[in-house]
Amino acid sequence: MNNNNLFAAIRAAFPAELSAVAIESADSTTGRTTKRYTWQDIDEHTARIANLLTSMALPEGSRVAVQTEKSVEALMLYLGVLRAGYVYLPLNTAYQAGEIEYFIGNAEPAVVVCSPKSLAWVQPIADAAKVTRVFTLDESGGGTLIDEATKQSATQTIAVTGADDLAAILYTSGTTGRSKGAMLTHNNLLSNALTLKDYWGWSSNDVLIHALPIFHVHGLFVASHCALLSGARMIWFSKFDPNSVLARLPEATVFMGVPTLYVRLLADARLSKESCKNVRLFVAGSAPLLIETFNEWQERTGHTILERYGMSETAMLTSNPYAPDQGERRGGTVGFPLPGVNVRVADEKGGICPVNEIGGIEVKGPNVFAGYWRMPEKNKEEFTVDGWFKTGDVGKIDEHGYVVIVGRSKDLIISGGYNVYPAEIEGYINDMPGVAESAVIGVPHPDFGEAGVAVVVAKAGVSLDANLILSTLKNSIANFKVPKRVFVVAGLPRNAMGKVQKNLLRQEHAALFS
Ligand code: MLC
Ligand code: AMP
């Protein structure tokens, strides 16, 4: 029978020699190998996890929500969920109780896996949402999930799924209201992964340094899928640290990172042509790569970073070329639409923009998600009548076919590769006693690319304490969402329509971190 399960394709790509090392977990400070996992280990661990889930007789399409530290076992959990035919729902480790309560309430997962140190507050949330079972998984791969999985058989028949069955739900914040769950099918993920594997020239000789978190598209899908589908080895870091990455870089052939990772590596004097001697490909994405970083990287290492563009709803849309005969890699651009992916630029009336004209970037292709989880009205808003997905990014396609992103129509801050939605943060600030209104803006930041800044107005007669606003936010939301600075001001600039002029605030604070 034809099985469209993404894991079936991954399993079929395992090398014949199952005793070869597939993943080396490495100490995130020193870079030294702490444990080796063979392809056989991946096969057995994922089979056990899949058997554990199947033994629970969960309803078809059940979600497995996961908020755990990064470990090889956490990757096995993702693969085990695919293998069992359930839907994987990764959650940023920085999320706090209020945020997790929303995700669990909205997605109604059958199973939740959390870190042992979060169990005390996750369990009541899960109980209230009638979650069948909560397991734990810690950063060294221990916990009740693995204890229970170990009792299961190490062989399993991969669940048969259709191409359009859901493989994962990735929550991505909305410009208004709460986060939306982007539903990704097995075919969305597999088609995109196979395209990237081919386009970027992956082979079993590759060695990938994996230093990104695995709760987002970049680390979970782009990096892991390319390596797994190529039978390539991964050096697995639970956290990015320039020291450990530089210790292992000489044996790597591929590195992937958000721009902040490149900025931090450049700040380390040990980065040199010698340290990159075996690397064939540096990939950057998830946020704009500054041309200064692109140029400096070229000078220091002799390598031209390949910048690509993607999002949770669509996986990867465009990429600068890998092979020289496909063209040069141009800094400041995100390259060409990937094979099989259609990208167009539309004006406000829905007409197609001519070459070099700026408009909204739209996409169509097998990579485009199946819609937002239980939000039919959002699907109507964010797809055109002829079925193109409106990315919310603003850009153009130049005369050579390169896509250039110039901004966003969505009010979004991308900080160190994480998305922060001003409307969400403003909502928290506006609920604080004594606050009349607030505006959260993104301003240039040398490390994170952009950083959030809050401008807050007090109610008449109230004196607000900026530090108290910051500490209140730190106690309620993920740390990366907390603005780096808070200013209490007399009033916000508004236009004739009464709309807050965030562009003026951005100008005013543009040099804050320079
Ligand atoms: C950490 N902090 C951040 C932050 N990361 N603040 C803003 N933006 C971020 N991204 C906070 C910390 O909580 C801390 O606050 C302070 O900033 C300094 O922390 P740090 O020790 O320097 O941070 P670190 O743990 O080193 O993390 C930085 C990072 C991490 C860059 C390594 O943010 C990261 O891994 N980013 C990658 C995100 C990613 O994978 N994105 C892909 C999305 S997929 P305090 O107050 O506690 O001191 C996608 C689609 C696509 O977009 O195209 O790929
Ligand atoms: P997410 O919703 O977290 O998947 O973030 C997706 C958004 O990241 C996109 O809509 C873009 O705004 C942004 N993004 C991803 N890659 C790039 C890139 N190479 N350059 C500029 N922005 C990017």
Task: Describe the fold and architecture.
The protein is an alpha/beta fold. The chain has 15 helices and 24 strands. It has helices at residues 6-12, 39-55, 72-84, 97-107, 119-128, 144-150, 186-199, 217-230, 242-248, 259-266, 291-301, 376-382, 422-430, 466-476, 502-508, and strands at 21-26, 33-38, 63-67, 87-90, 111-114, 133-136, 166-172, 180-185, 207-210, 233-237, 254-257, 281-284, 306-311, 315-319, 336-337, 342-346, 359-364, 389-397, 403-408, 413-415, 418-420, 435-445, 449-458, 485-489. It has a nine-stranded mixed beta sheet with strand order 2-1-10-9-11-12-13-14-15, sandwiched between helices. A four-stranded parallel beta sheet has the order 4-3-5-6, sandwiched between helices. Helix 4 packs parallel to helix 5 (119-128) and helix 7 (186-199) packs across helix 8 (217-230). The model has no long low-confidence stretch (mean pLDDT 97). Bound molecules: malonyl-coenzyme A and adenosine monophosphate.
Rounded to the nearest angstrom, the radius of gyration is 23 Å
Proportion of residues in extended strands: 25-35%
Put simply, the count of helices is: 15
Query: How would you name the oligomeric state of the polypeptide chains in this document?
Result: single chain
Unreliable stretches covering 5 or more consecutive residues:
none
Estimated structural class: alpha/beta
Neighbour order of strands in the largest sheet:
2-1-10-9-11-12-13-14-15
The amount of helix comes to 25-40%
Q: Which compounds are bound in this model?
A: malonyl-coenzyme A, adenosine monophosphate
